Amino acid sequence: MRTLLILFGFLLVSTITVAQAQENPLEKIGFEEPTYLLLDKSLQFRITENINALYNFDFATAERGFKVLLYQYPEHPLPYFLIGLSTWWKIAPDIENKRMDDLFISQMDVVIDKAKEMLDDDPENKEAAFFLAGAYGFQGRLLSERKSWTRATFAGKNALKYLNLSRGEEELNPELLLGDALFNYFSVWIPENYPILKPVVALFPKGDKDLGLKQLEDVAQNAFYARIEAQYFLFRLYASDEKQPYKALAITDYLHSKFPNNPYFHRSYARHLYTVGRITESKEQSEEILRRIDENWTGYESNSGRYAAFYIAQFYDRINEKQEAKKYYLKTLSYGVESESQESGYYLFSLIALGKMANEENNKAQAKEYFKEVKKYAKRKHPAHVEARDYIKKNKL
Questions:
Q1: Structural domain boundaries in the chain
Q2: For residue 322, which of 314, 331, 333, 310 has the smallest C-alpha distance?
Q3: How large a percentage of the chain has pLDDT more than 90?
Q4: What is the pLDDT of residues 42-66, one digit of tens each?
Q5: Which is nearest to 317 in space by CA: 286, 367, 283?
Q6: What letter would DSSP give residue 20?
């Protein structure tokens, strides 16, 4: 059920998300006043710096611009949404941290209230439905992460409802296509991977996984507002379900170069370098991540440290520098405890590596403790649990 609820968020979390603003040439001068604020090209041009600052984790610059919009358009949901989006990206690098949950939910509530007022005045206002779909979608995703199933289901259903109402406006289609793309993909992916959910997914229209991936690629290339969010979903899908790690790397390489201070994009880039075997480059990026954590850069915290320390440990392990490897495996454990991520693969396989090292050093008591920890935190069918059991049996620990 959690997967389906997260799907609700996936379907709509980006429907209205503002991504990197593209450059607007001088030809934009002289346009007619648009029906919807979202289509105002001069506005897009004016907020480019602020939106790029948001994705680059310069929240002060981003929020200054959004507050100017709030002064100019106090009754429109757009500035409230952008301010909420800033909060979302403060949450994103460490999604388990709940300190900003209430603030974010309340910010999306304001967006919902403003958009509903617009819809009351004009029931055909697709821009209002557009914002309602996005705000409910964001709420649904966060609430599903918090296992607040009833509230997440309510938010998800509302998001789908307003997504449907917002369709049909040709100029908004590049942004709305993201919701269609994610629905097409995941409505097929879920029953393939979670057969128990087939009856639930059957209540929705039939999707087309290949079409969904193509639509996602189109949005990543052509959309204004949803471009970066589409790239975010693409690199995740390429890395996992689509088994195309080099495509995932190409996207994260671009995102990290464009937004070098975004910790989520940074660690994803390091991860995909590691995945394709460019382990020296992964180590270099990971060392930079750890340096930024030590220097308290915005958004760089223990969750990113857990990734980075593991990749550095793997580098030293592969060149047989065991003491350096041990140092960074222990750092992985430390960051894992700090971020309460003891059930993650990085934590578990660090324990296994340390257990093997201890056994090779004839410290069987320490080795037993490491493998005991693996069995404590990993489910029995988890690869780490299986490997730990096999190693214990083979080495008579």
A1: 2-240, 244-315
A2: 314
A3: 55
A4: 888 888 899 899 999 999 999 999 9
A5: 283
A6: P
Q: Whats the size of the chain, residue-wise?
A: 397
- Rounded Cα–Cα distance for residues 44 and 206 (Å): 35
Q: What is the mean pLDDT of residues 144-165?
A: 79
User: How is residue 385 written in tokens?
Assistant: 């649990």
pLDDT tens track for 11-32: 444 443 443 434 433 333 444 4
DSSP labels, 325-344: HHHHHHHHHHHHHHTT-TTS
d(CA 98, CA 108): 16
Helix, strand, coil content of the chain in percent (nearest 5) = 75, 0, 25
- Inter-axis angle of helices 126-145 and 173-193, nearest 10: 30
Nearest CA among 330, 345, 351, 354 for reference residue 379:
345
pLDDT-derived band at 83 (thresholds 50, 70, 90) equals very high
The answer to whether 266 and 286 are in contact (CB under 8 A) is no
Return the DSSP state at 397: -
d(CA 306, CA 26): 46
The amino acid present at 71, given as its one-letter code, is Y
DSSP-assigned letters across all residues of 93-138:
GGTT--TTHHHHHHHHHHHHHHHHHHHHH-TT-HHHHHHHHHHHHH
pTM across the whole model: 0.84
Q: Higher-confidence residue: 187 or 138?
A: 138
